[in-house]
Amino acid sequence: MAAKQVTLTFDNGPTPHVTDRILEILDRAGIKTTFFVIGQRLDDAAAADLMRAAHTAGHWIGNHTFTHSVALGDRTDRDYALREIEDTQQRIGSLTRPEKLFRPYGNDGLIGRHLLSRAALDHLLAERYTTITWNSVPGDWKDADGWVETAMAQVRGQDWSVMVIHDIEAGCLARLPELIQRVTDLGATFEQTIPRSVILTEAGRTVSMSPDLMAD
Ligand SMILES: [Zn+2]
């Protein structure tokens, strides 16, 4: 059996005193990841510094909406989509990947029609964003005791896990070293790249997009 693959992604930061410690853990483990940042958090200079530190360390920076409040499919007007996407992209600035990584707000990690609106999809295509979802949400922010078990079950259960965990207070930090150790013990490999199965749009085209991921 081929080794399992795991792509770690850290959402909803940067968070001072959390993201910096996660960067140290990843550095020690030699793991490169993606940080999907919330735009309005970057107006805090300390948080913006941590985004730069992550970028300097070789992690990728992705856009995870500006307010992270109402999913794009739950508020379908074009202006809302543009603000949520572009106000964040502007703050990421030159730290963006050339392929412009964007992850919609899932509202508790859910996959469904609330993820995108038609206006949001059209914009992501026109501006050539790489729109990325996930296939592993172990629930670090709501299940401090159980999330590593959940994560390991998800890693064992599929060939390539794209895992959403969080660099927030009460997120994954406390048990991240344990997760890394257990994934390593399983013989799985950490990847920075993202499989096409969770890429909705790329370079102006749809990839694994489905009508079930967009509001009418
Ligand atoms: Zn999020």
Automatic annotation (TrEMBL):
Residues annotated as domain NodB homology: 4-191
SUPFAM superfamilies associated with the record: Glycoside hydrolase/deacetylase
GO molecular function, one term: hydrolase activity
Keywords: Hydrolase
TM helices/strands, residue ranges: none
Pfam families: Polysacc_deac_1 (PF01522)
Stated family: Belongs to the polysaccharide deacetylase family.
Function text: Is involved in generating a small heat-stable compound (Nod), an acylated oligomer of N-acetylglucosamine, that stimulates mitosis in various plant protoplasts.
Descriptive protein name: Chitooligosaccharide deacetylase
Species per Swiss-Prot/TrEMBL record: Methylobacterium brachiatum
